[in-house]
């Protein structure tokens, strides 16, 4: 028996490109996925109408280093809640927050802690 054709070498499929693509897709989905829940802060938009202010001023300043001041007097957080209780008739009375140079996380922390303490009407000013 004569065979004049060159002998064919059996080729095995190369899986390297497929593994590269799967690895790239894995990295893409890991970077694009979210692992934490976003926290939303409900802020009421200004209505434009003037409302009647009741009681003493309640201006909470948050400094750049995270220290708190109530009406210009430095306070720690527990003292701040005690003083706000003294200055408000109800915990639904407005409290003004001002964070000039403070980090956003410090502002959010103060807002969360005041909300957890029961203060429901927080006004954020620049």
Automatic annotation (TrEMBL):
<keyword id="KW-0812">Transmembrane</keyword>
<protein>
    <submittedName>
        <fullName>Biopolymer transporter ExbD</fullName>
    </submittedName>
</protein>
<comment type="similarity">
    <text>Belongs to the ExbD/TolR family.</text>
</comment>
<dbReference type="Pfam" id="PF02472">
    <property type="entry name" value="ExbD"/>
</dbReference>
<dbReference type="InterPro" id="IPR003400">
    <property type="entry name" value="ExbD"/>
</dbReference>
<keyword id="KW-0813">Transport</keyword>
<keyword id="KW-1003">Cell membrane</keyword>
<keyword id="KW-1133">Transmembrane helix</keyword>
<keyword id="KW-0472">Membrane</keyword>
<keyword id="KW-0653">Protein transport</keyword>
């Amino acid at each position: 028996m004569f065979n004049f054709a060159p002998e064919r070498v059996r080729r095995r499929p190369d899986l390297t490109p497929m593994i590269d693509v799967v690895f790239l897709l894995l990295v893409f989905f890991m970077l694009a996925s979210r692992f934490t829940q976003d926290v939303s802060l409900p802020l009421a938009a200004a209505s434009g109408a003037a409302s009647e202010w009741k009681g003493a001023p309640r201006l909470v300043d948050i400094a750049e280093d995270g220290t708190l001041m109530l009406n210009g007097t430095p306070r720690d957080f527990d003292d701040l809640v005690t003083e706000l209780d003294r200055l408000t008739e109800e915990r639904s009375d407005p409290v003004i927050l001002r964070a000039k140079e403070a980090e956003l996380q410090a502002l959010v922390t103060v807002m969360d802690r005041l909300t957890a303490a029961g203060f429901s009407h927080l006004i954020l000013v620049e």
